[in-house]
Amino acid sequence: MKLLLTFALLLLIGCSGSVKKENLNMPGAYNMLSQNIKGGKVDTTYKTLQQMKIFTDEYVMYANVNPPDSVSSFGIGTYSTDKDTINETIIFRSADTSRSETPSSFKLGIETTLKGYKQVIPNIGTQGDQKLALTETYESIGTQSKSALDGAWKLMKASYIKGKDTSIQKVIQYKIYNAGHFVWGQSYEDSLKKNHTGIGFGKFELNGNKLKEYIMSSTYSTIRDLNFEIDIVMDGVDGFSQTITNKDSSKSVEVYQRLKK
Q: Are residues 92 and 191 in the same domain?
């Protein structure tokens, strides 16, 4: 059985979260260690899906990729906590060839562990007449570092510059930074109007106007395990542009605006 081949399953799996019963301070970065799907005669544990989830004070974003087939998904939204429950409202999500801009709310219960937390969704779907439960285990990987980029961002403009030619890239893209880690996700259509989903996540360091990003995982195999040196220009506290200069002297420029409730 291939993992996460349906849009609904991808969305629900991405919308897992965490909270400590004793402490509702959620901001941080989390790496998924495993997931188990159980119900009826099904009891299967998967450890191949690579997923990171980041919480800021107000926003949450997840992204994942299944390395064997590069099927990816991501979602971004707001959240609130209530004892051992997280209430998420995902405002945008994209999974493989599907995407949705209709907000969806999810109520998530959490059990803390020594490394992080365990997420149980008791009714993620069905197989035949049997209900399936999904359990995901996460570890905390965030650092105490702070930066001017911490927060959730939406791409406003993307361009590719080579010589005197500039082309505008048509893509919906979100990005989140916090706790020394980042997640980005993009959704775009090809010439046949078919949707595609791409993600990336990893670690970052910001020193002045120089940003270094290390890609831990991505839909795109050519950028996995690579470091990127990026020039940053802040536009106040709610906007920034980033420029990557490629080996052939071409440049990729992206302009972002901070998300606010």
A: no
Does residue 38 belong to any structural domain of this protein? yes
State both tokens at 135. Answer: 């359990």
Domain boundary among 85, 106, 140: 140
139-189 pLDDT per residue, tens: 999 999 999 999 999 999 999 999 999 999 999 999 999 999 999 999 999
Q: How many domains does the chain have?
A: 2
* Contact (Cβ atoms closer than 8 angstroms) between residue 138 and residue 32: yes
Q: Is residue 145 part of a domain?
A: no
Q: Dump pLDDT digits (tens) for 56-87.
A: 999 999 999 998 899 999 999 999 988 888 88
For residues 102 and 23, the answer to whether their CB atoms sit within 8 Å is no
Q: Give alpha helix (H) positions in the chain.
A: 7-14
In this structure, what are the phi and psi dihedrals at residue 177, rounded to the nearest 5 degrees? -125, 140
What is the C-alpha to C-alpha distance for residues 131 and 123, in angstroms, rounded to an integer? 6
| Domain extent at residue 131 | 7-140
Give the integer Cα–Cα distance in Å for 151 and 161: 27
Q: Collapse the DSSP code of 8 into the 3-class scheme (helix H, G, I; strand E, B; otherwise coil) and give the result.
A: helix
Q: Which residues contact 199 (CB under 8 A, 6 or more apart)?
A: 63, 64, 65, 72, 73, 74, 183, 184, 185, 186, 218, 219
Q: How many other CB atoms are found less than 10 A from the CB of residue 101?
A: 10
- Tokens 């930074």 map to which residue? 177
Q: Tell me the CATH number at 76.
A: 2.40.128
Long-range pairs, 216-225, Cβ under 8 A, ≥24: 216/50, 216/52, 217/50, 217/52, 217/65, 217/67, 218/65, 219/65, 219/70, 219/72, 221/70
**pTM exceeding the 0.85 threshold for the entire prediction:** yes
Paired residues of 76 in beta bridges: 61, 92
